[in-house]
């Protein structure tokens, strides 16, 4: 564990500003990697003078599934909450929203491959990710219209008018991301009912282990996914998720990765979402970050080789932020 502890401390000091005496609650899934990383972060937090507690919960079945009530209550008593899941994040939950509404810092840590989690990330890397994220957050907030395309076949437009983007990065407050390996994204909910086109997801879908065997197309009309095309087993699974409730089929999120330290070669893990210029879109819930849709589901689909135009001005060309 020592190889993680030294690396995690450098990153945490540069990103999270943990103070002596602060109460830090680390919530991990009951699987090997989150538990290992959680133990390492606990050692780091305690060495920085904080009082860190590690809580292990059963792995969630969906993004947006609430933690146990006892854990949600404990989160509200902390100064800092660090969440390390195996697959499904806790960002899109009432428990997280209650925490950040109270001003408690909440950091989502994506589980990456062990060699990547041992790879040094410098303070300069973290500042670059923060600056890039804040730039894209501002551009998204100021835009009225977005068009997203990809070499894989994505071509979709949506209104962003009046929507405020949110930046998640290692120095984000009160909602931030992992300093190892330095993830980040600029995200916002498109105006409901306005998205039109197709999304070709060709890297991964949250909740499924590994890279997709072949692309999956989301067909979007008037802001809702009306069908999926792709491998039959995946399409059947997605159709089930998108029919869970009235809000489940809503195209609810546009998010742009902002990190140059996440590897360019995708691993099929959640860490891939943070790579600079990659896009993930989601269907389901967005009322927790500025939208109007509630659902029990929030399902991300990740794709690459992307370009993004805001009000006719290109801000991303083939995954490179301009």
Arithmetic mean of pLDDT: 93
Discrete helix count: 7
Backbone CA Rg: 18 Å
* Structural class based on helices, strands and sheet pairing: alpha+beta
Low-pLDDT ranges: none
* Tertiary shape: globular
| N-to-C SSE string, H for helix and E for strand | HEHEHEHEHHEEEEEEEEEHEEEEEE
Oligomer: single chain
| Strand line-up of the largest beta sheet | 13-12-10-6-5-17-18-19
Number of strands: 19
Helicity range: 10-25%
Report how far apart the termini are: 39 Å
Largest sheet: 8 strands, antiparallel
Number of domains: 2
**Beta-strand percentage?**
25-35%
Describe it for me?
There is one protein chain. With 322 residues, this protein is α+β, with helices and mostly antiparallel strands. It folds into two domains: 2-109, Rossmann fold; 142-166 and 182-317, no CATH class. Helices cover 25% and strands 30% of the residues. It has seven helices and 19 strands. It has helices spanning 2-15, 32-47, 69-75, 94-101, 114-117, 123-142, 232-241; strands at 23-29, 51-57, 80-84, 105-108, 145-150, 155-159, 166-168, 175-177, 185-188, 196-201, 204-205, 216-221, 224-229, 251-257, 279-284, 298-303, 306-310, 313-317, 320-321. The strands form three sheets. The chain has an eight-stranded antiparallel beta sheet with strand order 13-12-10-6-5-17-18-19, with helices on one face. A hairpin with a 2-residue loop joins strand 12 (216-221) and strand 13 (224-229). The longest helix is centred in the middle third of the chain and has 20 residues, at 123-142. The termini are far apart.
